[in-house]
Write the structure tokens for this entry.
Amino acid sequence: MSVLYVVKIGGNIIDDDRKLASFLKDFAALPGNKILVHGGGKLATRMAEQMQIPQQMIDGRRITDAETLKIVTMVYAGYINKNVVAQLQANNCNAMGVCGADGNVILAHKRVHPTTDYGFAGDVDAVNTDILKSLIDQQIAVVVAPITHDKKGQLLNTNADTIAQELARGLSRLYEVQLIYSFEKSGVLLDANDDSTVIPTINPAYYQQLKTEQKIFAGMIPKLDNAFAAIDSGVKKVIIGKAEQLTALVAGQAGTSIVHE
């Protein structure tokens, strides 16, 4: 099977024009098949604040009311997605931007939770691997915004880390998938404020220990949950690390590797 890189970019990199441009140059240079999944939460949060729409986060996940859904759709599937595509084209990387509703790429349902109403947050039901493969096989880098749909006309906001994991898992039967979560930190850190405290490798038992000792900050929990779900579902490799080190992450020379045992 050929290699497929599924790369998720998020955090402060999206907000920093210089860092984003550098990252996209590196991403464009990756050989072979690739998918880029992006978030954009900080820009969406700023816009919501400017429009005086209160924002609420629980365990790193956004509560998406009807007005917030409009904002995240405009920001994620609109400005950020098309800006990324345009910059990849400038780097001679033919790219196409989609959200989950386009081509029925990602089907989801409104999240049901016993204690929390997450609003129009979506949990993934299915990934349309056929259409993704058809694009990938044409040497098109697919840029995915984390907006999904329920096939009943309702758009849903889905965690971008989850999108990356679901795409990686769904495509793992067709490709040798390497899932890379890239953001502003150098990896999973023992001290969130000290970039030198990168944990090289995390297995399930150590992850539970880190959570029990409250050494994992809120935004990292869904990332790690998704990383372990990917490894358990056939994804070849999962690495978490710094966006500026994308080439080294792909080579296994930086970041945090997620392993079975």
User: Anything to note?
Assistant: The mean pLDDT is 92. The domain at 3-258 is CATH 3.40.1160.10 (Carbamate kinase).
